[in-house]
TrEMBL record:
GO molecular function list: ATP binding; microtubule binding; microtubule motor activity
Gene3D superfamilies: Kinesin motor domain (3.40.850.10)
Record region (Disordered): 439-479, 599-618, 623-665, 675-694
Highest rank taxon of the organism: Eukaryota
Lineage: Eukaryota, Viridiplantae, Streptophyta, Embryophyta, Tracheophyta
Family: Belongs to the TRAFAC class myosin-kinesin ATPase superfamily. Kinesin family. KIN-7 subfamily.
GO cellular component: microtubule
Sites where the protein binds ATP: G110, Q111, T112, S113, S114, G115, K116, T117
Biased composition (Polar residues): 628-637
Protein name: Kinesin-like protein
Record keywords, A-Z: ATP-binding, Coiled coil, Microtubule, Motor protein, Nucleotide-binding
Keyword Cell inner membrane attributed: no
Composition bias, Basic and acidic residues: 464-477
Coiled coil: 355-426
Amino acid sequence: MGSIGGAELPKMEKTQIASAREEKILVLVRLRPLNEKEIVANEVADWECINDTTILYRNTLREGSTFPSAYTFDRVFRGDCPTRQVYEEGAREVALSVVSGINSSIFAYGQTSSGKTYTMMGITGYTVADIFDYIHRHEERAFVLKFSAIEIYNEAIRDLLIADSTPLRLLDDPEKGTVVEKVREEILKDWSHLKELLSVCEAQRRIGETSLNEKSSRSHQILRLTIESSAREFIGKENSTTLSATVNFVDLAGSERASQSLSSGARLKEGCHINRSLLTLGTVIRKLSNGRHGHINYRDSKLTRLLQPALGGNARTAIICTLSPARSHVEQTRNTLLFACCAKEVTTKAQVNVVMSDKALVKHLQKELARLESELRSPAPVSSTSDYATLLRKKDIQIQKMEKEIREVTKQRDLAESQVEDLLRMIGHDQTLRNGAVVGPHPTQQAGHTWEDEFGDGGSNMDEPYHLQDTTDDHSVSDSTYPLISIGKKIVRSDSCQSLEDTAFGPAEDTDDYCKEVQCIETDETRRENKFELHSITSGENEATLALTMFGDGTATEQQISTPAIGHREVSHMQDGFTYDMLEQRLHHVQRTIDALVSPEPDETSPPSLAAHLSSSRSMKLTRSSSCGENTMTGSSPYFGKSEQIESTPPNGFEKIFPGRPESVRRKFPPLNYSGAARLSRNDSQSSVDSAYTDDFRSQSIETSADVDIPSIQTFVEGLQEMAKQEYEKHLGDGQAQETDRTAHKFEKNTKDVGLVPMCEAMETSSDWPMAFERQRGEIFELWQTCNISLVHRTYFFLLIKGDPTDSIYMEVELRRLSFLKETLSQGNHTVGGRSTLTTSIKALHKERGMLSKLMQRRLSEEERKIIYQKWGIELSSKRRRLQLANRLWSNTKDMNHIMESAAIVARLVRFVEQGQALKEMCGLSFTPPSTRRRLLGWTFSISTLL
Ligand SMILES: Nc1ncnc2c1ncn2[C@@H]1O[C@H](COP(=O)(O)OP(=O)(O)OP(=O)(O)O)[C@@H](O)[C@H]1O
C-alpha cells in the first residue's frame, strides 16, 4: 500500500477495471466561531458540537420548538477546529481517491459568510500538496496533470483560467529545490491567486449594493485537477494502462434565499439564477436521497448538469456544510442542516477509471473470456438441480457484468480515439502555432465564445470586467539546466467541453451526451467548422502546455494533451483499424453479391433466375444508397475513397428495381444504435444524419424485430470482430504475430494487425489454401447442421466469407466456436450455451424456420413463391407450403447449389441487402477498394449460379 502523509492509499499497480463501489456521500459539518461583527452585536452562539458526530441547538428560549435539536453526521467540527483537521479527519480520504484513478468532489455548502471559501481554500491547498508528495514518492509512475477553474454566474459558465489569462509558470531556479517542489509551490500560489481574482470579480459585482448581504458570493466556483498516471516503463507503448481521474473543489454561492438577499430588477434576476442552481441542487439531492426513483432533473441548472457524476454517479463525494452559530442566522443554519441530512442519504458509485490501450483491452477481455470458457468446460460439481440453476444464474450475472464493463471501457476508448483523431487533425491545421510550444497570450474572448457554443446560454458575461490582462510576456522557461516546464492553464476547447460534462467529471452516464460529444466534433458540418475554428485558435498554442508529465524522481516533461504519451493507439492503427477494413471488404463483396441477387446483369444464356424474376415484379424503385453515404461523409471521412464511390454507386439515373421496399428506407439509411454496440462507436461520429434517418430506421427495425427474432447483421459483424480480436491475441500469445516491417503495404499492415500475417502468408503462398478452404468450409457446414445453428447466422457468414486467404481467421474462429458448441452439446450441457442469440437449441431453430415462413408471405409475392416452390419440388396444392420450404432451407450440407439457394432466400427474407448497406454506410467502414491481392475462391456468386 502506498501512503500520503501517513494515510494509506491503495497501490496504483493493483487497480484494474474494478467494479463500481457504491457508497454514501460523506457529509461533514463545520461550525465557525462568532465573527467580530456578531460579537459586537452581542450575538449569542446557539449551536454546539457535543461530540465528533453530533451538533446540538441549545436555545433554551425556544423550548417546545418543532424542529429537532440534535443532528448527526459523519463528522462535525467545532468552531475552533483548524482547517487542517477538517481536511485530515474529513475530506482527505475522498479527495485523494483521485490518485487511485477515482473521481472525487468536495463541496462547500452554506449561507454567506459561514466559511465556505475559508474552508475550501485550505482543503484545496492541502490536497494539492498531498498529491504532489505522492507524485514525488512514486518514481516508477509518470503523471499528467491538467488544471481548470470554472465559474457559474447567472447560469453562464466561464472558464476562469483562460479568461484571466495568467499562465501558471515554473521558475527555473535550481536553488529552489527539486522541480516537483517548485511546481507545487507555484500551483499552490496560483490557486490562491485565483481566489484573489475571484474576490475582485465579486467586489465589482457588489458595487452599489447596500443590503445586508452585500458580501454574499454571487457565483459558484469549481476548481478541478485531473490526474492521469501510468507505469513509466509503458509510456508510449501499445499495451499501456492509464488511470485518469478528476478532483473537483466546489465553492457554492451563499445558500440564502432570494427573498432575503435580493430586492428587485437585475439583482433579483441574478438571485434567481444563483438560486436556480442551488434550488436544483437541493431538488436533485432530495430526489437522490429518496432512492433515485424517477427522473432526476440534473439538466435544470448548469451547476447540477456539470456536477452530475459527482452527485449520483462515478465519483466519491464529500459535502462540507458550513454554519454560523449566531442566533440571528438560525433559520439559515437549519436550512443548511436539512440539506445536509438529505445529502447523507445520497449514494454514488465510484470506480477506478482505467484508460486502456487497445492491446491491453483485448488482452483483458480475452483473459476474461478464457476464464469463463474454462469455467464452462469444467463446472464446479453441483449436488442438485437447484444448485445447478443457482450456478447458472451466477454465471449469467457475471457475464452481464462483464458485458457492461466492456461497454464502459470501449466507450472510454472510443471517446479518447475521437478526441485524439480530432486533435491530430487540428495539429496539421496549425503547425506554426504548434511549434511555438509554450504558453502564449490567450484571446480572452475564446472562453465566452466556446462556453456559449457548448451550453447555448445567451447570458454571456463577456461584457463584464473580468478579463484581467496578462502582463507577463515571458511565458516560457528555457533554461537548459532543468527540463523545460510550463504548466498551462488553458484548456483545449474540445477537451474542455468534453471533459466538463463527460470525462473529467467521470464518464457520462447518458449515452446522449456521449453521442453529442462525438457528433459535436466530427459530424455536424456547421458545428464542426466552429469547432475547428476554435481549435485552430486555441490548440496550437496550448497543446504543449496543457499538461505536465511528471516523474517521481523530480524530472518533468511537457506533455501534449492531445497526444498523451501514455498508451494511446497510433494514428495509423486507428485509421487502418483491421476490423473496419477487413469487414468493409467483406461487406463490399457481400453487397455486390446481393446486388447481383436483386438486380442481376441480364445473362442471355442463362435461364431466367428467381432474382431476375423478383426484379421484374416491380412495386418500388430502389435507388442505390451510396448517395446517402456520400452525403453524410463527404469531406468528413478520410476513409471515403473516390474509387469506391464510383464502384459502388451506379451511374446517374440508374435505379434498381426492388419489390416491397418501404419508401423511407429507399431514401436514406439510418445510423446504428450504439447503445449496445460500443465497439463500433467510433463510427457514430459519422452518423450525423438527420434524426429522421433514425426514425426511419427505427420504424424499419421495429417492423423487422416485430416480425422475427433475427439477429441483425450488426450483431453478427460485432461477433466476428470480437472473435477475430480474440484470435489475434491468441496468435500473439503463440508468438506467431511479430511485427517486422512497419512500412509494409497497407494491406499487409492490416492483416498484421489482426495477427494474420503468418497465416495469410502461408495461405497465399501455399497451393494448399484452396483445398484447405474447401475442407474447412465443408466442416463448417456440417457443424452448423449438427449444432442447429441459426439459418440467419449461416447466411451472413456464408455471404461474408468468400474464400479470401484472410478469411481463414474467421473460419478458424468459427470452427473453434462450433467445435466447442458441439462438445458442449455432446456433454449434455444444452442449457449452458442457451443464452446466445446463435443458440444451438433445436427449438430455436424450429422457431426461426417458422418465422422465416411467415416472412415469405410478407416479403415474396405470390408469383415469386410459386417459382420457388416449383424449383424446390413443393407441390403447389400441398398444405403449409411456406413452412415446407422453410424446413428445407439449409438442410443439405453437401449440395453447394442447395446452400447457395438457401442463402439467397434467407438473405432476401431478412433484408440482408438493406442491413448490409446500412451497416456499411453508418458504421463508417472504410471505403477502400478491395485489395488486388484478394483471391476469391468458390463462393463468388452470380445470379445464374444461385437460382
Ligand atoms: N472556521 C473559521 N474560523 C475563523 N474564521 C472563519 C472561519 N470560517 C470563516 N471565517 C471568516 O469568516 C469570514 C467569511 O468567510 P468566507 O468568506 O469563507 O464565507 P463564505 O461562506 O465563503 O461567504 P460567501 O458565501 O459570501 O462567499 C471570513 O473573514 C473568514 O476568514
